[in-house]
Amino acid sequence: MPPSAVGIRVDYFHDASDEYLALLGVARDRLPEREAWRRASELECTRPLGQRSMYAVLWELDGDPVGFSTADRIVLGESAFMHLHLVEESRRRQGLGTAFVRLTVEHYLEVLRLRRLFCEPNAFNTAPNRTLQRAGFSYVLSRQGTPGPINGFQTTTLWVYERPASAP
Ligand SMILES: CC(C)(COP(=O)(O)OP(=O)(O)OC[C@H]1O[C@@H](n2cnc3c(N)ncnc32)[C@H](O)[C@@H]1OP(=O)(O)O)[C@@H](O)C(=O)NCCC(=O)NCCS
Question: Ligand 1 — pocket residues by CB below 6 A?
């Protein structure tokens, strides 16, 4: 994601309804203030890989930005946690999420040199749980906790994608 595009993510969370944030397991009072978050995200996208707390991927369809993924808890050469979001509801449930996740997984594995990639959605949010399985992730466990800095306490499911043994 180029620094100029980070607003798609910041606005997506800030403009979301309370009901939608609850489905995602995101707590509105834990979102950084909009402009400060935008500036911090822009800066983050310019840092060298080894200094990143977050790496973002913009999802484009026919040149239009339609969604994004971020990776955080990055341990270069080892593991990271990914997130997946199609911004417009009308774009969902057509196979796009699965296609973008597959492409994004390959990108993260290559750029961050990962051995495994995790994703930990809210357990009651069916869409990512189904999509991760379809994109080749394996279920690890369910647990309760606060998975990230913008999340509230919730029940989550942990999924993993292991780098194939045959991969270079
Ligand atoms: C998660 C998301 C990226 C998935 O993308 P998508 O394009 O909607 O998913 P796909 O069309 O590729 O569907 C993949 C699978 O999920 C299922 N699915 C998708 N949305 C669903 C929903 N709302 N309810 C039930 N099943 C759903 C599909 O039926 C399909 O299942 P199958 O393998 O049994 O056929 C997208 O739905 C989204 O952005 N949702 C809102 C944000 C979100 O919840 N992000 C997760 C935060 S961790």
Answer: 24, 83-86, 92-98, 121, 125-128, 130-131, 134
Could you tell me the CA-to-CA distances from 82 to 71, 99, 118 in Å, in that order? 4, 15, 6
**Overall pTM surpassing 0.90 (yes/no):** yes
CA 27 – ligand 1 centroid, Å: 21
Q: What does each C-alpha distance from 155 to 22, 72, 144 come to in angstroms?
A: 12, 19, 4
Burial class (CB in 10 A: 0-12, 13-18, 19+), 53: exposed
Token pair of 114 as six digits: 């990962």
- Classify the C-alpha dihedral 156-75-83-130 as positive or negative: negative
Given this model, what pLDDT does residue 95 score? 98
Residue 136 has pLDDT above 90, yes or no: yes
Domain range for residue 140? 3-162
Number of domains in the chain: 1
Residue 167 lies in a domain: no
Residue 134: give its domain's CATH number: 3.40.630.30
Mutate to test the pocket of ligand 1, among 57, 102, 130 (most ligand atoms within 8 A of CB): 130
* Within a domain: 111: yes
Among the atoms of ligand 1, which is closest to the Cα of residue 86?
A: 39
168 occurs within a structural domain: no
